[in-house]
Amino acid sequence: MRNLHISSSRLLGDLDELAAIGGRADGGVDRVAGSQADLDARAWLAKRMEFADLEPWTDETGNVFGRRPGGSGPWLLVGSHTDTVPAGGRLDGAYGVIAGLEVLRTLHEMDHPAADGLEVVSFWDEEGARPDSTGGLVGSTALCAGEHIRDVRAYLELHIEQGPRMESAGLQLATVEGIVGIDRYSVRMRGEPNHAGTTPLSARADAGRAAAKVATSIWEIARRTDATMAANAGSLEFHPGAPNVVPGEATVVVEFRAARAEALHEAADELATLSHDFARQERCVATIDQLSNKPVVRFDAGLCGLLDGVLRRTGVPHDRMTSYAGHDAGALSASVPAAMLFVPSKGGVSHSPCEYTPESLLVLGCQTLLDAVLEFHESRSE
Prior knowledge:
Blueprint: H1 8-20, H2 36-51, E1 55-58, E2 64-67, E3 75-81, H3 94-109, E4 118-123, H4 138-145, E5 152-160, H5 165-169, E6 173-179, E7 181-190, E8 194-195, H6 207-225, E9 230-239, E10 245-246, E11 249-258, H7 261-281, E12 285-294, E13 297-298, H8 301-314, E14 318-323, H9 328-332, E15 338-343, H10 359-381
Parallel strand pairs: 3-4, 3-5, 5-15, 6-14
Antiparallel strand pairs: 1-2, 2-4, 6-13, 6-15, 7-11, 7-12, 8-10, 9-11
Helix pairs in contact: 1-3, 3-10, 6-7, 8-10
């Protein structure tokens, strides 16, 4: 197993070439799903597969696949996505696709039997950054609803962490055992619009003030509920939105992320209680609606155990962790065994031109993915 090695120069060179498609002067990438840059990147990927004597194909959703000529399922699927957010980074998603391609190329060149059952994929619209998007994970969700999923045995995804936890702990690799659940809520306050100059403070029904209290309370909700919970109030709108008008209506969108479903439920209950309390304090009425719910994901125990064993043999600092960002692996986990492998992100920065992981760790992650694919093949051949 350890005699097979990826080509680090080919891996890094392909990452550079792909980053140039939709590349920005600041080092970032604009490759939103469906844009010309995204379509060009998918065409480039298919050509890279052909150049490696692999067979590319694209499904009706836009997912790009590659396999060895003459190979057959059931497939171990590896990959990620090549679309980005606007002004995104060069590694998010793209790293997992190019690493998957490099693993398949290496196995194909060495005529290793593991290549026959390995398929690489670049999913369509993982980010959900299109104006008409329904929330991302489009290609992976479509795959799970189609015929091809019946020929998929399992799924492995290599990704940058997109957070600071690995770097802070001094880790170089991590087995990802799950993805946090993500709940979003709209809290709407209804008060009474009025002249901001002539209406005394004591006589106002200020919906903006009530909504602002909600926005500033969610960190405390998260801390009281679960020390590992993440929370955000990323959208706050006042209506009619004039400097000299007391807001008659205001809406704040709140998001909670947690590895325990119970914590999400507790946070939702406290959000509702506080929202109604703040509304009463400001002579307003509160309405709370859940906008979306992405349940907690637990990855396959067998695949996570396989990755743990591979990581132990690398001899580098490693551990298990939970992902705080959503991934295609989360969608696939409902249909097939799935797991993920992380490498660190410098400073925890992602979705940004400043997104960065040292080349040595990118190579380490890809080599570890190759070792995991070989381990998976051997475990199925026994």
